[in-house]
Each structure stands twice: as C-alpha cells, then as structure tokens.
Amino acid sequence: MTTNRISLTELESGTPFEHRHIGPDHEAQAKMLAHIGFGSLDELTATAVPDVIKSAEALGLPQARTEAEVLQELHGLADRNQVLASMIGLGYYGTFTPPVILRNVMENPAWYTAYTPYQPEISQGRLEALLNFQTMVADLTGLPTSGSSLLDEGTAAAEAMALSRRVGKVKQGVFLVDADCLPQTIAVIETRAEPTGVEVVVADLSDGIPAEVAERGIFGVLLQYPGASGAVRDPRALIEQAHELGAVVTVAADLLALTLLTSPGELGADIAVGTTQRFGVPMGFGGPHAGFMAVRDQFARSLPGRLVGVSVDADGNKAYRLALQTREQHIRREKATSNICTAQVLLAVMAGMYAVYHGPEGLRTIARRTHRYAAVLAEGLRAGGVEIVHDAYFDTLTARVPGRAAEVVAAAREAGVNLRQVDADLVGIACDETTGRAQLAGVWGAFGVHGDVEQLDAAAAEALPEALRRSDDYLAHPVFHQYRSETAMLRYLRTLADKDYALDRGMIPLGSCTMKLNATTEMEPVTWPAFGQLHPFAPAAQAQGYLTLIQELEERLATVTGYDKVSIQPNAGSQGELAGLLAVRAYHRANGDEQRTVCLIPSSAHGTNAASAVMAGMKVVVVKTGEDGEVDADDLHAKIEKHRDELAVLMVTYPSTHGVFEEHITEICAAVHDAGGQVYVDGANLNALVGLAEPGKFGGDVSHLNLHKTFCIPHGGGGPGVGPVGVRAHLAPYLPNHPLQPGAGPETGVGPISAAPWGSAGILPISWAYVRLMGGEGLKRATQVAVLSANYIAKRLEPHYPVLYTGPGGLVAHECIIDVRPLTKATGVSIDDVAKRLIDYGFHAPTMSFPVAGTLMIEPTESEDLGELDRFCDAMIAIRAEIEKVGTGEWDKDDNPLRNAPHTAAALGGDWSHPYTREEAVFPSGVEAAEKYWPPVRRIDGAFGDRNLVCSCPPLDAYDN
C-alpha cells in the first residue's frame, strides 16, 4: 500500500493565517473571478490598477508567521517591558477593570466590532451605554450637557480653547493657561493654537489673573482641578474674575476627585474637560482612553465631537440617536466645530459601565481610599522631615527634597515604584485605586524615612479643603443603582449587546470604512498586563518591548506605503490629517514660504480634510469633481495656476472617494509639485493599495493611515482609531514630538498632536500582529480579494441598480457606488427607505449619500465569504423588486414595507392594517426565522430629537409627548 508522504515541515506550518482572514477560499475566488470575466487575481488587479502607480517590487516585509508563532513573539516583546507600580500620575493612573467589563465589553466582539451608530435603530445598545457615559460626566462635572467622548484630555482641552474662541464675547485676546495644568495638555494646546493665530499665555494663577495679561484681553482660561502638582485650590474667585473680563472658563477636572470635591459647574466653570481613563480603562502606555467635555446649556449646540440624544421612533417610543449631526465635519466641512471623526466609544462604554457597576457609593469609596493613601503617605513623609509642598490635595503630593530628587526617584525605582521627577528639588507622587501598603513602604524607603501605616493612618488628617467638599447628589439615575451584582451587570451588558448589529452578526458593507475581520489573535495581547499597565511617561528602559514593537510597526507601515518615516502618535485619522498638514506647513515656513497657505481639496473629499486644513491654518479652495467621479483636471489646473504662489498642498483621496483608481494621479501630483506645493494622499482607501501601489512612490509627500480600517484595529462602535502619518524624508523633521518623551519624535517637530507620546499605543499590538501574520504576500492578496469582492458585488447588482463610477476596464476599486436616485424619482422610495429595509433583511446599510446624495457606497472587504456576499446581493435584488411593487402601485407609496422599515417584533402584535403581510414585513426573501435579527425600535424621528435636545439619562416623564 502506498500513501502520499507529507513532510514534517509541511505539517508544522498549519493553515496560513491569511486563509482565516480572507473570506472567499480559492474555489469561491475562482467563481467570483469568472463572474466578472477574469482568470486570476493578478489579471484582475493588473487591469484595475493603472500601470503608472503599480509597485515594481514585492513588499519587503518579514515572512508571514502562524498565530501561535506571532503570539509567542508578542509574549517575548511583552517580557521586555518592566511594569512597576506607577505613582507618576499626570492624568494616567492605575485602575482595576472589573472583570465582568473587561471580558464582556473590551474583549467582546459584540462591542468592539460595532460601527459608529449612524444607523441608530440597530445601535440602541451602544447608544444607551454612551448616554450613561454622558450622564456620568454631566453629573460629576455639574454641567448639564456632555458629549459622548473625545480623544484624550489634551485634545479635549484644545477643543475647549477653540470652543471658547467661537462662542465667547471676547473675539481677540489670548488664551490663558494656568501653569499648574498638565504639561502635555499645555503642549497640545500650544501645537493647536499656533497655526490658527491664537496666542497662549501660561502663567501662575494662584493669586489671580495678572494685570498685564488682563489688559491684553482674554477669550478663554484653562484651570486644572486638582492641579498637576496635586494642589487643590478654590478657583471661585479666579473664575469670577475671568468672567468679569468676558472670558470663557474651562476646568480640566479629575472625575474621581469630583466624587469628593465641588463640581466645576457649581464653582462657576463654563466648560469641563478631562479623561475617563481611571474609570476602569488600562493605561496602555498612553491610550486609547475616552476624553470628555461638558458645557453649559447655551454651548450645547456648539459642542465638538459626538452627542447622543434622546428621540422617539415611529410608534412614539423612546429611542436614542446621534444628535445635531449637521454641526459635524461630515456636513459642515471647513465650518465644522472640529475635525473629529473617530471618537473613543469602546473606552467611553467601559468608563460609563465602571460607574454603572460601582455606583456613586462605590466611586466615593474608591476616591476616599485613594485620598486616604495619599494622606497617610504625606503624614509619613512629614514625620520623616520631608516637606510636602501643598496642604490641600486629593491623590498627588509634591515633595521637596533639595538636590535629591533624582536620587529619590532612582531609589523608588529600585523598590519597584515609579515616581515623577519634577525638577532637581521636587518629586511628584500620585496614589490611585491600585495603591497598596507595599507602595507606601517603598516610597518612604526611597525618601529615607520609615512609617507604620496603622499609626500614621490614625494621625493623618484629611487634606481636602472644607469649603470644597462636595455636598450635592450625583449619579441618581436608576441605571447607576440597579447592577451591583455581577449577574445583574452581565445580563445588562448582554441585553444592550443584543440590541445592536455588529460585525459578529453579519456583514457591515460600509463604503470607505473597511469593516473587516478583527482577529482574536490580534486582539488578545491588548489586555496583557505587560502592555496594558504601562504608564506613558515611564522610563524608556522599562518599555523596551513596547518601543521595539512601535519601531517595527512604523518601519513596516513605511515599507507598505513607500514613505521614509512614520509617526504613530496621532490617535485618530483626523489627527493624522492635522499632523500631516502641520508638517507641510512647517516645511514651507522653514523654506521661507510663509505665504503658502492654500489647500486644494476635491469637492468629493472626506469632511475631515477641510476641517483639518482650517485647523492647520490653511485656506480651503475646493476643486470640482467631474461626472466620471475623478478630479476635474481642467478646474484643478486652473486653481493651481490661480494660487501658484500660495499653494501649500493638495489633499486627494486615492483611490478616489468614489471608489475609482484615477489614471491621472501621477500627472496631478506632478502639477502640484511643479507649482511648489505638496501632495497629501488621504489613506482612507489604503485597503485597495497595500501590496499593489505605494503612495509615497507615485507622488504623495504625506499620508495618514487609518489603522482602524486597513490594519484591523476595531471600530468599537465609533472608536478607538489610530491615524499614523507617513512622510517623505523632507517632511520627517516636522513630525509630532512630545515634551515628556524625547524619543517620541524629532526635536524640530511641530509639537504633540495627542496627549500621549505614542498616541493609542495600547492597541498597536493589533496592527503589528496583523502585518506579522499576513506577511507581504498575504497583505497583497487581501487587497486583491477586496478589489475582487467589490467588483463581484458591482457586477451582480448592475442589472438592478446603476453603478455610478468605474475606472480602468470598467472596474471599481475596493468599493462601489450604486445609484438609487432614478428609483426615488420614479417611485418615491428614498435612500433612507432602502437603508432601513436592509435591517429587515438582517444587514447594516452601506454608506448613505456619501460622496453622492441619494446613493449607497458599498465596501465588502476581503473578510466576507462568498455566501455572505451573495446573501447581501440577494437582499438588494429583492429590495429592488419591492421598489418595483411600489412603482407599479401594487404597494401603496406611503404604506409599504420600505417606508415602514424597520419592523420590530412589537409591531407585529395587535391589529395589522397594512396592505402587505406580517411575513412580508419581517421575513422577506432569504430571511430565516431562526436567524432573524430583530431591531429594538422602529424608524427614529431625528428632527424631534434635535428640537427636543435631551443628552443624559432622563426621567421617564421626559418622554411624554
């Protein structure tokens, strides 16, 4: 008997990861290729991708590794990190994530694979979780309206500066910052202020506003409460003085301290900002963490970022949605309130659930314990002759040891504790939820003193000023009192997740958003303590594994894109845009071309492009888009000539926002360069380029990359994201840097873009693992299958819906646009009707009305298998037949399954007066009863929600109509 011998090497290799990541197998790919008329992936992409941009060589990346091998490598990197007890503070603290939240939110694909809730009917769970977050922030800050998360504390403070300038009475003047604000916050503010012509004055405000500053005019003031030094000061007189000068006052506050201290709202502040990191979110070497902003009522409609509001559905039932979306960059572009696109939703959900789980009593207990440890620590140091600089503090002490600060910090490090060296004489020490008696002993020993905890606890007085003790109630809503047991919390989280549609249920075919697989192997290392518990300002020697991972990821991203240098500091795509534009601005100014301020942007571009350009101090000039979806070459050349001497940069998305490989991109880049400008290639559509073409080699000078799109970081309900910026060598000196970590960027850099030196470092293992698992060939095949899947869908739907734009060979790139406008004109069925009807079929809708109103932009990604692609196409074809029934009059134009979609289970009860059956409503063609997704609400009335703005957990009577 003979057998086929298989070598040990072949058996050891196992199934390549790319076969897990890429949905269609070889047989399915062959069927799809045959359907669109090609014999191979190489033949397809050779036709689709213009010759002038094709990469000549394979990606120079390490060979792909198996999942087991990559996890082993990551364990090796993690082992090179040294996690000491962190008492550095400065806005980053040790915290204990309740395991029920860690497992059932952070590690749960029902939460981390969800998309931004632009289809609110199928996002009620995450929207309720965000409303909890907003209520928590509003209650603790004492200000009535909170947004649903910003990127971090530093950028939240910068957004407050912009808001103060926008809404305040003083239109000129300076932005005044107290010297006791967090140093990274001050640096981010300075980075953001300079391009827009805002002068920032940093001064010691402990004795009020200096007269010489008041004389110059002040539009806004920023205070830290408690201060970076730990000092707790009563700011009421200072706030009153600022208001008398017409300034808007922002207080950067610590939410845990606010459980014991008088709220910023009661103190008179107009805006409160901060971070929710210490509410159960790991430090993660700096992020991701949800920042926050809360404002007085009169500023609510100017609030930057996302805002969850309460509305009603078609039956008058309570329903949640994103409110006031017309103020955002998607609609208002260069006139938007900010450039924020990605938020930090997953982390906001965690922080909100931390408050739900602990409730006000639990949070107060954690705060009291934290403060008590600080008081006992201070008592021991004082008893040993060490001066504590401030008498009033919450969790942070500043100790004076003339000439000995470095010695003390080094001794503490030897004892397993990281402290902060402020200068040669001062040491900062921060307590937190994880501080224990061993840390007190280690710190006392480092200062050369000894203490008995029990004796010192009995002797130590409270250090919170009596006049600032909080007396009002907060977190009174039942949601913060109902889920104390783990059983109750577990069921609440499950109930919310069951209301939502995420990638764990089915395909999310959103164009330009790349909702692909976020593999478990990639996700797993994020919650390892060696990655999750490291402070961003820990000594570099303790973060060698992290720094190696970051360096390797930056280098591999540079290889993939053809750029010379990459910075991963920007913690969202919008921030990557800003970083890239600031680099361009700095480059021109270094060359003496300060007049180069014009930014050319095609009319079809993402809204963040224009908003980011304004933030970078540039003037936006719009370039027309031709009927074929490409940049109007004649208009572009006319604008180049008109603004030749002032041209700073062209921002162009490639493939185009319309999902087309433009054949003239190299000519466009050359024309801009000939005029002395730079070319910014928006990396939103990189999923169509990796392994096929490199922006840095076909004309781009700078790009941001969306790691939450092409490189598998989950969308998490709207964030976290990471937006690294890649540049050619001449722009590299102007990448972001950071005042507290010199290794984070060049000395000549533009300053920090985010509060943390390496941005959202905590989730970088995901993209590192993805690149390592796929290798160069795997990444190329992923791109090819993404292009194949988009063209397969386009060909299947083309007989039923017009495909709006195509490129070479009549092909699209990784996404396609189908036109519903002729059907709307003929039948009255709107794009909203089609999107909501897809919910009845068990799908999240594609991107609606972007970049063309009345259309759907579909991006299947490479991760969806042929069965799911066909299920989606079958649903769209069935909906086309339903539209035909409306058009012929078989179904009433105002009472049909499309106009009434989505249909809930509750809608089936009672009388049924519709001219279609219950089965047609909820079990349309191809929908199996056993697998049915039931939306929790019917179509939501957005206008009602905007007219009746409610943005926190309201009492039941608030829903009376």
UniProtKB/TrEMBL annotation:
Its cofactor is pyridoxal 5'-phosphate. Residues 782-903 form the Glycine dehydrogenase C-terminal domain. One of its GO terms (cellular component) is cytosol. Residues 19-446, 453-736 form the Glycine cleavage system P-protein N-terminal domain. The modification N6-(pyridoxal phosphate)lysine is found at residue 709. One of its GO terms (biological process) is glycine decarboxylation via glycine cleavage system. It catalyses: N(6)-[(R)-lipoyl]-L-lysyl-[glycine-cleavage complex H protein] + glycine + H(+) = N(6)-[(R)-S(8)-aminomethyldihydrolipoyl]-L-lysyl-[glycine-cleavage complex H protein] + CO2. Keywords: Oxidoreductase, Pyridoxal phosphate. Its EC number is 1.4.4.2. The keyword Nucleus does not apply. It comes from the Bacteria. Gene3D superfamilies: Aspartate Aminotransferase, domain 1, Type I PLP-dependent aspartate aminotransferase-like (Major domain). SUPFAM superfamilies: PLP-dependent transferases. Transmembrane segments: none annotated. It is an enzyme of class 1 (oxidoreductase). Belongs to the GcvP family. The glycine cleavage system is composed of four proteins: P, T, L and H. The glycine cleavage system catalyzes the degradation of glycine. The P protein binds the alpha-amino group of glycine through its pyridoxal phosphate cofactor; CO(2) is released and the remaining methylamine moiety is then transferred to the lipoamide cofactor of the H protein. NCBIfam families: gcvP, PRK04366.1. This is Glycine dehydrogenase (decarboxylating).
